[in-house]
Design a protein that fits this description.
By secondary structure, the chain is an alpha/beta fold. It has a single domain, classed as P-loop containing nucleotide triphosphate hydrolases (Rossmann fold, 3-Layer(aba) Sandwich). Helices cover 54% and strands 12% of the residues. A five-stranded parallel beta sheet has the order 2-3-1-4-5, with helices on both faces. Helix 2 crosses helix 5, helix 3 runs antiparallel to helix 5 and helix 6 packs across helix 7. The N and C termini lie close together (10 Å).
Amino acid sequence: MLKVGLTGSIAVGKSFVLSVLAELGCVTFDADKIAHSVMEPGRPAHSDIVQEFGTEILTADGLIDRAKLGAIVFPDDAKRKRLNEIVHPRVFEEQNRLLALAAEENPQGIAVIDAALMIESGGYRRFDKLIVVLCDREKQAERLMKRNGLSRQEAEVRIAAQMSSEEKRRYADYVIDTSGTFEETRRRVVQVYEELMKSQPRA
């Protein structure tokens, strides 16, 4: 099975790219959803995060309020690093489990994992190919403001907290620019998918 990493900064359109790859027949996983699952009550990451950041980040029913946690870690490099140290190893374990299951089911398939911090965490090295999604900086800020209900300043802080798209581009086997229309982006995703199929090792 060809293992493909999909990454890009916040609000650049990774979810749309992932959805098109799924339509084309790839097995797809969203690392953010995997992170949600490892942070659920009863899982080890949950108790470690609460111990580190306090019970004020919890909702009334004991779930981690990601908005409250985000407000603490986004402006603070040290706190963000500490959160990543807690969550990333658990996410990697779960990813490996899911990839192994997918490979059993379809050894000749393509599995794609979407993760925003794949390069920063070093996780990209575990994949055969890396796709970097990016878009125009102004569009990125607009999308983030609209999606998360943020002010311009809040959006810029979140964008600045991550590795830039230009830096991420240096690691890419394939680049997908989502600055254009959905149809233009879809055409580029199909191109990349066809190239991935050609690079798939045959048994």
